[in-house]
Structures are given as C-alpha cells and as structure tokens.
Amino acid sequence: MLDIKLVRENPDRIKKAVEDRQMKEVDVDGLLKADASYIDLLTRVETHRALKNKLSSDISKVDKDVREKLIKEATGVKEELVKMEEELGMLEEKRNTLLKSLPNIISEDVPFGESDADNQVIREVGTPRKFDFEPKDHIDLGKELGLIDTEKSAEVVGSRFSYIMGDAARLQFALVSFVFDTLMNEKLIAKLAKKVGNPNTKPFIPVVPPVMVRQEVMEKMDRLEPRDERYLLEQDGLVLVGSAEHTMGPMHMGETLDDEDLPKRYVGYSTAFRREAGTYGKDTRGILRVHQFDKLEMESFTTPENGMLEQDLYVAIQEYIVQKLEIPYQVVMISTGDMGKPDFRQIDINCWMPGQKGYRETHTSDYMTDFQARRLGIRYKKGGFVYMNDATALAIGRALIAIIENHQQKDGSIKIPKALHKYMGKKVIK
Known about the structure:
Number of domains: 2
Helix content: 40-55%
Oligomer: single chain
Shape: elongated
Largest sheet: 8 strands, mixed
Radius of gyration: 27 Å
Strand order of the largest sheet: 1-11-12-13-15-10-9-4
Number of helices: 14
C-alpha cells in the first residue's frame, strides 16, 4: 500500500503508474476526493472533541443555574459527535479501500509495455548448445530414464501434476542443498554483494515455512488477487501459498526491527500451489506449467537506501546459481504491463530450454519498496517502514527441465553439472 501523503503530493505520478499498468478500474481521482472529505471531516471531529472536553470540564466549575444549560449543550455536542465519528469511520474505510486498490509506483528504468512481449533483454549469458543429434524434451527423457511420470499422476489427481522419481528426486534435493550452501556461504555472498555495490554481506537464514496462510494475511501481502489463481480453503479461511514468499514476507508482521539487524535475509524451501487459471491449452506437456511444484525463495527486509541494491544482489545470486548449473540464460527487465501490482521493479531470468526451442522464465526478482511493509506493519526503529525484496533462488521443476534438456547426451544419459556432483554422488544419470 502506498503512503497517502505520497498520493496527495504526487497525483500525476500515481495516475501514470496506474495508466502504465493498464489498471482502468483504479480511481485515483475518487481516492483524492475521498481523502479530502476525510481530512475535512476529521478537522471538524477534532474541533467537536475539543468542545466536548471543554464543556465537560466547565460543568464542574459553574453554578447550578448555568450547569443545566452546559449539560444540555454538552449532550447535543456528544450526540452530534457520535454521528460525525460514524461518518468519519465510513469515509476512512472508503479511502483505505481505494488506497489499497492502487499499485506501487514504478522505477524510472522500467520499460513501458502492454504485455510480456514488451519486456527488454538486458543481457544474454552463455550460448545455446548445438547438438550433433536430435535432442529430446524432458518428458521423453524422463519417461526413458524413469524420472518423471505425468500419466499416472493424471489418473491419481488430474492434469498438471507429476511424480518426480529416482535420480530426478535425488537431483531435486541436490539442488536444494546446493542453493542452501550457496546462500549460507558468507564469503560468497560478500563477493557477490561487493560486485553490485551492496554494502551488506550478511548470509541467508534457511527456512521451511508453512504452505498455508490466512486469507487476511495474504491480502496484506497484496498477493490474494487474482483469486482464481489461488487454492482457497474457505472452511478454514486459509490459502495454499503460491510461493514461499507468501509466508516469509509476514514473518515480521507487526514488528519494529532493530536497525543493526538489517538486512534480514531468508531463503525458504516450500511447495507452491497455483491453479494456472487462464493458461489452459498452454504448456500442457511435461512439468513446465503445473499446479504443484517445489521452490526455493529469497526474502529480505532492509532500509530504503539499500532496497535497490538488495535486488541487484538477488539478481547476482540468481546468475551465479544458473551459471553453476551450466545453463545459458537471459536477464530481462519486465515491462510496466507485465509487472505485479506490488512491484516497483521486476527483473526475470529466462533459461534456455532445448525442448521449448527458446528461453523460458525460471527466476523472478521483485522489489516492492515499502508497499507490502505498510500493510504488514513492519518498521525499523530509526526510520519508517522497511523495504522488502523477494526473488526466486530456484524453481525446482523448471531447473530440472533445464538440466535434463541442456545436459542430455547422445546415448540418452544426462550429465550432472559439476556443482552438484558432491550432492548426487555421481556424474551421470543413465
């Protein structure tokens, strides 16, 4: 949620952010009008409160003949005040509802665009492999090697689920261990932080967070909508998370953090659940777009001056991980029309997938400024609200696809990236 003061002082910037995101349903002028009405009524309420207090004080100081007159006047002021306070409460609720509908402001370096077609590639790293044989996609390789079974899972639970088995299951947990070791390595984090000019070298704390969250908390994260993307447990008032960030972001909800403890950095491992509404007919083959997958997510809380630098560190970490997995990739700046509502700035990494014959999104980095922190009530002692970042460390399913397809061999085996050898205890899946 934005600071109402920011909206009052920068209405044109807010309107531009709304326009650039194509959020036609958002009424900035309606919000400003509601805010003006609220401020006007609040002034009158405060005047009435002062008058009520004065009359109450004067009653005990005057003679009996005057007292009756003051009591009558005080009663009238009190009754009017009750009505005014009720109206004020309704105005405040209306204002806050309109305020919550606003998206975050947008960083000046974000390209304008209407969709993902307008996203801009910042750089490409690595060269897609040229095979001297006809490469297979991950689902064919997965069947042949006993790694992935989507047919049986369809019988058991439905489409867009899978059984990850054998060496693929081992590979999943090798990836988890590799990412945890990477993000807990203080020397490595310090090196990557120095590279991007981030002064904070603190490593990440590993977390296994809950996979359910209260609906009202998800709303505070501003990730409840669109609801058709969420698995809602209405009976319990809970939501299955779509990413570990949904329960890591509220870890400090309602708290005031010590300045010397910032940044607080976490890496969480959890299962994610998404309905993938509106994508039916797309990416139905394999495990690229599924309803359930496992994911490693980074989350941090920092000061305003280091917010952008924290995102730069996240991208550097993501690039390091992908490079260690020996996969060609793109770094992409997401356009205004493709960004999430809480995002000030979003950067993605797209990895090369031979089976897709192109680059596909595997990592996202979201910089929210204090947009989420305001709704969550997360502050730090010497300032106001903390600034928050979240980012993919690794989406396991898509990482498996990229490894299987990029490292397949002519004999049908799969070379394991060197960085994972010690976790797998082998160099080849066959």
